[in-house]
Known about the structure:
By secondary structure, the protein is of the alpha/beta class. It contains 12 helices and 8 strands.
Amino acid sequence: MYSTFPILVVLVAFLRASHASFYDDPPPQIPEGGTPKEELLKKWDAEFGYVGVSTFAHLQHVKCLTTPEEKFDIGIIGAPFDTAVSFRPGARFGPRALRAASARQLAFRAFNPRAGFNPYQNWAKILDCGDIPISPFDNALALRQMSEAYLELGSREAYAPPPTATKASTAGKLNHPKLITLGGDHSIALATLRALQRLYNTPITVLHFDAHQDTWHPGKYPSYWSPTPSQSDFTHGSMFWLASQEGLIENNTSVHGGLRSRLTSEEDITEDAKQGFMRIECDDIDDIGVEGVVSLIMRRIGTERPVYLSVDIDVIDPGLAPGTGTPEPGGWTTRELVRILRGISRLNVVAADVVEVSPSYDGQGEETALAGAQIVYELLTSIVNRGALDREHEEEGEGMKRKRTLQDFDGWFGTRHAAQETPSIRDEL
């Protein structure tokens, strides 16, 4: 007679297995001495877009102004200031809105298929440096605070060593980190230019995307009560005029892009030309296309001189980006602006900003803030790409040195990365 015991054991095991579920995990074990750091990072470091404290693109947050020992190559810095506006306030909340809108820019899924790399996982150490504490009561004090903050951060030594190609020209000087500012109204550009001129010891070329030229004499805002000069001269429409008077802007190399606002008279255009700006009107893109706009900018500026790239979100049509203080109908699309930024990616951008995002006027989908966050991503990609290109020239060796031409610095606005093998519609066309 056979024993039934083995059969019962198998049956019990089968029944247990058939009732197992994904809840039946083994109890967690805490090793003696604590869990290793590497394992903790694997378990808990990854985040979904909606998780975590709001920093730009989930970057490490460091209060850089009070943490000089923490070096970085690119710093995202907020400038929550909007008391120099001429129409609708609210851009002081722009940095918060831009950070929130960047939540889906996760480091593990930020590969830029047009550029062919992930700017957050490349050579540059990128930090969210927090906000500059700025007075909302006294614009003269606010300007001083911003100017000193930019000079403090910009005068530090960057984390990564400079490429050999730049060492000869920067002998005895620090390799400065780059700053991208989340505005704030556009007047913050004056503080940035004051710092940049001192850091690089030269006037700075300005590439300015905006519906407005922002080179108006302060007297264009008439007031019986405010004799010139006075604190009221400092506005988001006069800061480039002030910068030109201070010798901060490189004459005859700067560019406006996307202009379309009403003017006081033709004198505005004449005064703008005296300050050294080339004007690309908004509707020029209909005649010459994105490629034409890119070509004008690159041939005007070149690839070597230091550039401050300033993006007022109102360069985009208010139907696509309504959350701003001085909207002007008939602007560029978000896609057009992004393609232009990709096309000029080889400029020597030493600082940049995205300003005039005013979330209280944005739509329910936060489309203005989303556009602004995407622009910051494109600016980051371009700065990282330029740094990588300079390092590639370093690897070519001393014998390969030559003067770089515009052909060396073609943008990627209409190209695919060579590693991509999937056919695109461009191949079909």
